[in-house]
C-alpha cells in the first residue's frame, strides 16, 4: 500500500522514520521549557531618529532666534538714534519726530533686553531637542504659546511671523510624534 508522493502537501501524514529525518535533540518533554520571546521594554514605535515635524520645529526655533537677534538690533539702533536726535535743534519743530521722541528710550532699551533674553531662551530650547525629555517638550509648548500671544498683542504687524512659527512649533512638539520623541528612552 502506497501513499503516493511524499512531497505532496495533501497526502497522508508521514510515519516517523519514513520521510524527512527528525532533528536530533528535539525530543519532546526533555530539558528546560522555551523562554518567551524578548520584547522591547518601551514597545514598538520608539523613534530612533528625530521625526520630520520635530526636526522642522527645531529649525523654526532657530528662525525665531535669528528674528530675535534682528529685532534686538533694530530696537538698539532705534533707541540710540532717537537718543542722539533729541539734541538736534532742527528736529525740535517736527511734529512727527516729537511723537517718536516721546516714546521713551528706556522702553526701547527694555525691549532690546527682552528680545535678547527671549532669543537666548529660544536658542537653549533649540539645542535641547536631541537630549531633552518631556520637561523640555512642555517648556517648548509654553514658550510657543507665549510667543504666539506676544505676536498678537504688542507686536501685531511684525509679530505675524512669530505667531505662525509659534503655532507650528506647539503643534509639532505637542503631537504624537513629538511626544514619542521626547519620551523615548535614553541609554
Description:
- The chain has one domain.
- It has 187 residues and is an all-alpha fold.
- It has 6 helices and no strands.
- The longest helix is centred in the middle third of the chain and has 34 residues.
- It starts with 51 loop residues before the first helix and ends in a 5-residue tail after the last helix.
Write out key terms for the chains shown.
187 residues, mainly alpha, 57% helix
Order of helices and strands: HHHHHH
Mean pLDDT: 82
Q: Look at the helices and sheets and give the structural class.
A: mainly alpha
Number of helices: 6
> What gap, in angstroms, lies between the N and C termini?
65 Å
Residues in β-strands, percent: under 5%
| Biggest pleated sheet | none
Q: Total number of β-strand segments? A: 0
Region (Disordered): 1-32
Transmembrane segments: 59-82, 108-127, 159-176
Keywords: Membrane, Transmembrane, Transmembrane helix
Biased composition (Low complexity): 9-32
Layout of helices and strands:
Layout: H1 52-85, H2 95-102, H3 105-127, H4 134-152, H5 160-174, H6 176-182
Helix pairs in contact: 1-3, 1-5, 4-5
Summarize the structure.
Helices cover 57% and strands 0% of the residues. The protein is built from 6 helices and no strands.
Amino acid at each position: 500500500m502506497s501513499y503516493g508522493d511524499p512531497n505532496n502537501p495533501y497526502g497522508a501524514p508521514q510515519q516517523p522514520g519514513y520521510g524527512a529525518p527528525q532533528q536530533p535533540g528535539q525530543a519532546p518533554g526533555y530539558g528546560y521549557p522555551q523562554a518567551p520571546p524578548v520584547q522591547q521594554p518601551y514597545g514598538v514605535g520608539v523613534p530612533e531618529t528625530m521625526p520630520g515635524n520635530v526636526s522642522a520645529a527645531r529649525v523654526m526655533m532657530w528662525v525665531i532666534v535669528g528674528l530675535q537677534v534682528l529685532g534686538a538690533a533694530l530696537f538698539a539702533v532705534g533707541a540710540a538714534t532717537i537718543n542722539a536726535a533729541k539734541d538736534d535743534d532742527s528736529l525740535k519743530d517736527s511734529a512727527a519726530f516729537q511723537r517718536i521722541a516721546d516714546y521713551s528710550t528706556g522702553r526701547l532699551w527694555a525691549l532690546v533686553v527682552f528680545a535678547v533674553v527671549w532669543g537666548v531662551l529660544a536658542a537653549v530650547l533649540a539645542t535641547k531637542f536631541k537630549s531633552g525629555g518631556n520637561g523640555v517638550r512642555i517648556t517648548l509648548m509654553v514658550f510657543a504659546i507665549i510667543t504666539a500671544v506676544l505676536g498678537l498683542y504688542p507686536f501685531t504687524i511684525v509679530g505675524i511671523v512669530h505667531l505662525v512659527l509659534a503655532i507650528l512649533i506647539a503643534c509639532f512638539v505637542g503631537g504624537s510624534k513629538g511626544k514619542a520623541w521626547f519620551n523615548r528612552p535614553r541609554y
